[in-house]
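TL;DR need structure tokens for one chain.
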Amino acid sequence: MSNQAVDAFSELDKARWETAARTYGNDHATLIGLLVDWWISLSTADHFALEGGPGYRANAEKGRGQCDALLCCDGIPAGVLEVEGTRIKSTIDKVGGYLTSHDHDLEKIEFGIVLLYAYTPIGHGPNRHFEDPASGEVLAWLVEVSKMVREKPIILISLSKKYQKQTSLDSHVR
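>> reply
TL;DR here they are.
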């Protein structure tokens, strides 16, 4: 693992996670922005992000995957970012596709970040809750993809939520 990746991962606690905790509904764009802000704040002189990065060249059956953001340093993509609440397995596959890409512009990517978030509550009444998005099946799949890209780490961030019935807008504004 490169020093850049190690340094970045050790600084993840500096992301503004309180923003995620105070965002309700489908916060996909907010979570992308939170991690892009974190990346750029690590080194405003040479870090930038390309949101809606270019697709990697996949085989004909899989088509092209487009990431949520490429995290770049000195004009070169250093990391691939994916944020997902529903299509988790295909998202992990997509990160693997970027990390194994032979595309000239993407082959220098050193790491991947997958942020999974609870999206849809399940159950009824007092049993209504959000499931942890990083289930055992998801972790097993991440391990399989990681085996294909051993020299390029993938960090998994899982955001869980506590379900609370909303009775009014101010129940969340306090």
